[in-house]
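Record format v2
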Amino acid sequence: MTAVNPSGWRPSAPSTLETTAVTTTTGNRALMLEEPLLFEIGSRDQTGVDFDAAHAGPTRLGGLERNGLDLPGLSEPETVRHYTRLSRQNYAIDLGLFPLGSCTMKHNPRLNEKMARLPGFADIHPLQPQETVQGALEVINRLAFWLLELTGMHGVAMGPKAGAHGELCGLLCIRAALEARGDARAVVLVPESAHGTNPATAAFCGYRVENIPANKDGRVDLEALKARLGPDVAAVMITNPNTCGLFEPDMKAISDAVHAAGGLVYCDGANFNAIVGKVRPGDLGIDAMHINLHKTFSTPHGGGGPGSGPVVLSEALAAFGPLPYAAKYPDGSYKLVEEEHAADEHPKAFGRMAAFHGQMGMFTRALTYMLSHGADGLAQVAEDSVVNANYILRSLEDVLDAPFAHSGPCMHEAIFSDKGFADGFSTIDVAKALIDEGFHPMTMYFPLVVHGAMLVEPTETESKAGLDQFIAALRTIAERARAGDESLKAAPMFAPRRRLDETLAARKPVLAYQTPAPDGTSSDYGAEFGGR
Amino acid sequence: MRYLPLSDADRSEMLEVIGASSVDELFRDVPEEARLKGPIRGLPMHASEMAVERDMKAMAAKNMVAGEVPFFLGCGAYKHHIPASVDHLIQRGEFLTAYTPYQPEIAQGTLQVLFEFQTQVARLYGCEVANASMYDGSTACWEAIGMARRVSRRKKAIISSGLHPHYVSVCRTMAKFTGDMLETALPVLAAETDAERVIAAIDGETSCVVVQYPDILGRITDLRPIAEAAHAAGALLVVVNTEPVALGLIKAPGEMGADIVVGEGQSIGVGLQFGGPYVGLFATREKFVRQMPGRLAGETVDAEGKRGFVLTLSTREQHIRREKATSNICTNSGLCALAFSIHMTLLGEKGLSGLARLNHARACEAADRLSAIPGVRLVNDGFFNEFTLELPVEARPVVHAMVGKGVLGGVSLGRLYPGEAGLAKGLVVAVTETVSDEDIGALEAALKELCQ
C-alpha cells in the first residue's frame, strides 16, 4: 500500500509499456496541455467583443488617424481556453504549500474578492465629488485605524502602491523631517541581510548606502552599529523580524542609539506576519514602517502584484506624510485632504507619490481580512505562523544545516544553508527537486548572509498534515543532496518545462513576439542588440 | 477561526516536536515589556463571513456607483465595459494566488502572459519593447523622467502644460529629492496645446520633453515636430497616455518619434476601483532597454529545447543590483496586466478600433449637444473621447449641484487646479461607449439649468 494505492488492489491487466519515451503529435500529455502564443493563434480580423456600430460621421482627431495596430484578437471561447490552459502551467497557493521566505504566501480568502467587487467599491471614480464616495473614504479611514492600533504608531500614509513604494514614502518622510530641522544627512545604514529594495530605495532618495554587519547569531551587530552612528547618519533600515527569520531582540536599544545620534529608524515590515497582534512596532521605537497588505493581510499576489504598502509613522514623522489622505471629521464625514487643503490641514506634507489615493481594491480586501480575523484571530495568525516555521526547523535540522538554530526558536520562517551537500550540489538542485514533489520551492540564495540560503516560510494557513508531507519530501531531497545523487541535477522532470536557460535569455533578449518573415526564417531581433 | 487549519491538538503535538512548552516560549526573543498580554483592546474580535459582509456592504452602499447614473468622469481613469470573461479568468487561483514567477518551470502561465502583454503594449504604443508593468501611469511617468536622465546624462525635463496635474505633482515631489529640474506651466482654455512653448524651451541641458497625448483637456497634438526638436538637441521625447483606447484610433506615439511611452492601462480590463490598483505601461526603444525600470519577461528554451519564458535582464533590478538598480520597484501590477492582456486579446485590432470609433462618435455627439447650450463653449478642436467645456459659471459648484440631480457630470478644472481663476470655468467631460443618448440628455438638461 502506498499513498497512491490506498486500497492495495492490483490491476487486472497491468501495463507493461515504459511510457516516458512516448511522444504525442500535439506535444500535449493528457491534462498537461501546450499552448501557443496569442500571436500564433489570433487574427487581426477576429474579436471576442460585440459593439453597437458607431454612427458614421467626420472625425475630429486633428488628422492623426492611425493605420493598423497589428494586435491579434480571439473569440471568447478561444480566449477562455487560451488563458485557462496557460493558468494550468502555474503553481499557486490554491494548489499547495508555497513556502517562499519573506513573501508570506498565505491563503487568500474569497470573501475578500467578493467584497472588493461590490459595485460601491469597484465602480467608483477617484475624482467623483467627495459627497458621493463617503463609504470609500470610510474604508480607507477604518483600515488606517486598524493599522495604527496594530502597530502602536502615530500616523499612517495609505497611498504607497507596494512595499518598495512604501519604503520610498518612509524615507522621504525621514528626509523631509531632517531637512525641516536643517540637518541634511548623507548616509543610510542597511544590514547585509536586507531586501534589495532597501538599498535601492535609499539610493533613489539620494542617500549613500553603507552596510552594517550581522553577528554570529544572525542579528544586527549592535556594537558595530553604535560605532558607525554619527551626525552623517540619516537613518537605519532594519527588517524585524529579520530576513533570517529572527526577531531583533535589541530593537529598542538600536532605536534608542539611532535617536540619540539624531537619526531615525525605518523598519521593513515585510515580516510583520510573525508579530501581528503580538508586538507593536511603535513600542520598539520605530519611526516608519511599511506594511505589505499583500503579505500580512492576504491581498492576493496575483503573479507579481498589485501590492499595497501603507506606511505607519511615529510622532516625529507623521506631519511629513504625503498627500492625499482620508480624514474623518467630528460630524462623521470624511474628506480627502489634497494639495488644496494642505496648507491648512497638513502643511509639512512632502508631496504626492501617485496620481490617486492608493490601492482601494487592496484596502477593501485587507479590511475584510482584518474584520474576519479580529484582534484575537490576528494574534493567532502570528502564533500559528511561528509554530509552523519552528516545526519545520526542528523537523529538518538533522538533515539540513540550520545556521542559527543554536540561538533559539525562529519566528515565522526557518533558514537553512547548503552546508553538508555533496560537492557540486547546491540549493537550486534542492529547490528544483521540490517542484517534482509538487511543492513550490522556498526562497533561494536569500538572504545573502547565509551560504546557499533556503528560507522557508510556511505561513499559518497550512495544516499539520500538509507540513508533514512537505517535511518528508524535503528530508528525502536533502539526503539525496548530501549523498550526491546526480539525478537531482535533472530536476524538475515533471513540470511543464525542464530547467530554463536564463543565460541565453539575457544574452540575446527577446522581449516581444516578432512575426516570422514570410519565407519562414525568424527575424533577427536581438542579434544586433546593443544597449547602453 | 475559519482560515486557520491547526487544531489545539496539532499545536501541542507540534510544540512537543519543537521542544517548547508553550507558544510564548517561541517569542522569547521579544523583550517581555514589548509583548502584548492579550488581544489589542479597541479592536473587535473575529467575525463570521456574514457579519463582515454586512459591515462592508453598508459602507459600499454609501457610494454613488458610476454604472448606475449618467457618468462622464475621465481625467486619468475611464469607465469602459469589461467583458465578463476577463474577471472570470483573473480569478482563476493559478493566476490570482501565484507569486512573481521566480521559479519559471512552474510559472509558465504567468510568464507567457507577461510576454504577450509586453508585446501588446509595445504594438499599441508603436514601440519596440515594453516591460511587464509598473504601479500606475503616474509612477511610470516619473520613472520615465528618471530613465531619460540616465540615458541623456542631463537633469532638466520640460513638462507640457497638458500633463495631468497629479502626474506633475508626483514628478515634482520626486524631483525635490533627486535634483531633477522640471519646467512646468499651467494649461490655458484654448484649442491649441503648448507644443510651441515646449519646443522653444528645449536646450542643451534638456534630458526630455514630457507630453501627454491626448492631454488633460482632451486635446490631441502632432508629436512629430516635438520629437524632431527634442532629438536635434539630444533630448528624449517622453509621451504619456492615460486613455489607451484612444490609440485604437490615433497614431501611436512611437510611430511619431517618441523614445519612451508610458501610461495608464486602467481603461482596458481593470475598472475604476476608486483609483487603484491600476496598471502602468512602459515602452521604449530596444537600445535603451538596459536603462528601463521594472520586470521583463523574455523568451528562452528549456533543457529539452522547448520554448519557454523567464524573467530576464534582472541585473538592472534591485534584488541583484541593490543600491545601483535602475529603480527600487519590486512588485508590479501583474494581475492588472493580466486583465489588460485578456481584454486586449478579446478586442484585437478589430475590436479596439471599433471600440475607439464608438467612443469617438459618442463624444462627438455629446460635444455638439453640450456646446449648443447657450453660454457653453467647446474648447477643443480635436479630441478623442474627452473634451473640455468652458461654462459661463464656475464649474466646480456645477459638478456638485449635478450630483443632486443624480448626474456625475465630469471633472471640474477647479478640482484639479484649485485656485486657478483662469481655469475655474473648465469642465472636462469624458464620453465612452457606456454613455447612452439618455445619459447625454440628462447631462445636457442639468447643464442647461445650472448654467443659466
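Chain B touches chain A through 218 residues (CB under 8 Å).
The CA atoms of residues 130 and 283 of chain B lie 4 Å apart.
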